[in-house]
Amino acid sequence: MKIERLAEILDAYGGDPLRWPEAERLAAQGLAARDPRAAAMVAEAEALDALFDAAPVEAPSAALMARVLARRPRPSLWREIFPEMSAWRPAVGFALALVVGVGVQSAAADRLGLTMEDETEISSEEGASNTDVLGPLGSGETIYEEDVL
Amino acid sequence: MVEDPDAGLVALTGQGDAEAASRLVARHLPRMTALARRMLGDSAEAEDVAQDVFLKVWTQAKRWKPGAAKFETWLHRVAINACYDRLRKKRGVPLDETDERADPGPDPEQTLGNVQVSQAVDAALQTLPERQRAAITLCHYQGLGNIEAAAALEISVEALESLLSRGRRALKEKLRHLSGAGATGHRTAQA
C-alpha cells in the first residue's frame, strides 16, 4: 500500500483499524507499523477520533423501551392459545368450520320443519300473512349462514 | 447469503413472539436512538424516530426474508431516511450538500470541561450537511463497516468515502480549538 492511500483511508475512516476497509486493513496496518510518517498520520487521526468520542449520547429510558413495545400489534387470540400451531391453522380452521356448518345445517333443518308446521296452524286459524310469520325465521337463517362462512 | 445475527429474532418477532420482540428492542433501540440523536441534535425527536423505526419493524418482521441484506443495515436505512424526512420538513427544502450551517465558534478564552467538549463536538456535528453527518454517524459512532454504511445510505463505497473525508476535514477544522481535549476532556482552548 502506498502512503497516499493510507492517508485517504485515515482521512475517511479515522485512526482505528477496525473502521478501515476490511480488504485493505492488513496492508494499511503493515505500512503504519514500518513507516514513521505513516505512524504519525495514524496518531493524528486517532486524536480526532478521541474528540468525536468525547460526545456520548444518553441511553434510551426504560419508559421509551416500554412505549416501543406497547405499540407492537397484539398477536391474535389464536396465536396466544396455540403459539406452536401456525402450520396447522388452515386445516384446523377448515375442520372447525365443517363441524359448525354441519351442526347449523341440522339445527336449521329442525327449526324450519317446526316453524312450517306452526305457520300452517297460524295461517289457518288467524289469517296472518306469510310475511309476518316468515320474517323472523328469514332473519334467523341469514345469521346462521354468516356464522358458517 | 449474508450472515445475519438478527435473523432468528426477527423471524420469531414476525410470528408474534413477545420475548423475541423485547430482545430485538433491547439490542437495537439504544443504537437507533443514538443515531437519530446525532442526526437531529434533539433527544425528543430522536425518541420519536426510534418509535417510528420500530413501528416499521413490527409491520415488516413477518415479511422479512433473510439473505438479501442484514436486518441491522435495513434498520439503519429506515432510521436515516426518517431523520432525513424530519430534517427536510424542518427546513422545507431538499437535501443539499451546500447547506453547512453557521458555527457559533468557540470562545478562545474559555476553559473546556467534559460537558463543554461534548457540546462543542455535538454542535460541530450538527453544522455538517446531512449526508456527511449521516456517513460519520454510521461509520464512526454506529460502527458500521464501509459496505454496510454505503448500503444503508444507498450510495457506493466510493461516495461514502468522499462524504466521510469531507465531513471529517470539516469537523477537524471546526474542532481545532479543542485539539487534544478528546483524550482528557480538560484543556484550555486555543485560538
Cα end-to-end separation of chain B? 53 Å
* Class by SSE composition of chain A: mainly alpha
CATH topology-level name of the largest domain in chain B: Rna Polymerase Sigma Factor, Chain: A
| Cross-sheet strand order for the largest sheet of chain B | 1-2
Number of strands of chain A: 0
Portion in beta strands of chain B: under 5%
At the fourth level of CATH, the homologous superfamily of the largest domain in chain B is RNA polymerase sigma factor, region 2, helix turn helix motif
User: Secondary-structure element sequence of chain A?
Assistant: HHHHHHH
Helix content of chain A: over 70%
Gross CATH architecture of the largest domain in chain B: Orthogonal Bundle
Fraction of residues in helix of chain B? 55-70%
Count of structural domains of chain A: 2
User: Could you spell the SSE succession of chain B in H and E letters?
Assistant: HHHHEHHHHHE
Topology:
The complex is a heterodimer of chains A (149) and B (191).
Chain A: H1 3-13, H2 22-34, H3 36-53, H4 62-70, H5 77-81, H6 89-126, H7 130-148
Chain B: H1 7-14, H2 18-40, H3 43-60, H4 71-91, E1 111-112, H5 114-127, H6 130-141, H7 146-153, H8 157-174, H9 181-184, E2 187-188
Helix pairs in contact in B: 1-2, 2-3, 2-4, 2-6, 3-4, 4-7, 6-7, 6-8, 7-8
Describe the model.
The complex is a heterodimer of chains A (149) and B (191). In chain A, α1 (3-13) runs parallel beside α3, α2 crosses α3 (36-53) and α6 packs antiparallel against α7. Chain A has 149 residues and is mainly alpha-helical. Chain A has helices spanning 3-13, 22-34, 36-53, 62-70, 77-81, 89-126, 130-148. The longest helix of chain A is centred in the C-terminal third of the chain and has 38 residues, at 89-126. The model of chain A is unreliable at 114-149 (pLDDT under 50). Chain A has 2 domains: 3-53, no CATH class; 88-148. With 191 residues, chain B is an all-alpha fold. Chain B folds into 2 domains: 1-94, RNA polymerase sigma factor, region 2, helix turn helix motif (Rna Polymerase Sigma Factor, Chain: A, Orthogonal Bundle), CATH 1.10.1740.10; 99-191, Arc Repressor Mutant, subunit A. Chain B is built from 9 helices and 2 strands. Chain B has helices at residues 7-14, 18-40, 43-60, 71-91, 114-127, 130-141, 146-153, 157-174, 181-184, and strands at residues 111-112, 187-188. The termini of chain B are far apart. Classes of the chains: A mainly alpha (149), B mainly alpha (191). The interface between A and B is large, with 36 and 54 residues.
